[in-house]
Amino acid sequence: MKMLRRFEPYAYTLLRIVAGLLFLFHGLQKFGIMGGGMAPLMGKMGLAAVIEAVGGALIMVGFMTSPVAFLASGEMAYAYFTAHQPQGTWPIQNQGELAALYAFIFLYISTRGAGVLSVDGGGK
Q1: Which single residue of 16, 83, 106, 119 has CA 20 to 30 Å from 99?
Q2: Domain-wise residue ranges, the chain
Q3: Tens digit of each residue's pLDDT (9 = 90 or more) over 33-52
């Protein structure tokens, strides 16, 4: 609907904020916060925890958004192909829907930038 297009910058901003916040929560779980178990910091899970917690926070506030979102997208693509895809062909079979969705949302955010209401102040 054309009349909703005027809200597009704010809808995009909400997408960035919510995706960043949820990603932050995934990282915090790997630090033993928010119901998760502590991941060993030296290794893949520790690196994932840092990318998710710090990256999620930076994406959420819109700071260094494009490079951080690109890194987060790559992490989620790696997670999908190493942890999920070997378990089955399709994301619905291998429980990789969330990793796949995060990978593409963060890829989109990396190309679009922070948008309005961000530290980067990217405007529209």
Answers
A1: 119
A2: 8-112
A3: 988 788 888 899 999 999 99
Tell me how far CA of residue 71 lies from CA of 4, 22, 33, 41, 91, in angstroms.
31, 16, 23, 18, 21
- What φ, ψ does residue 66 adopt, rounded to 5°? -60, -50
Q: Give the position of tokens 């700071």.
A: 63
| Tally of CB atoms within 10 A around 60 | 19
Contact 47, 9 (CB under 8 A): no
Do residues 92 and 73 lie in contact, with contact meaning Cβ atoms separated by under 8 Å?
no
pLDDT in tens, 53-95: 999 999 999 999 999 999 999 999 999 999 999 999 999 999 9
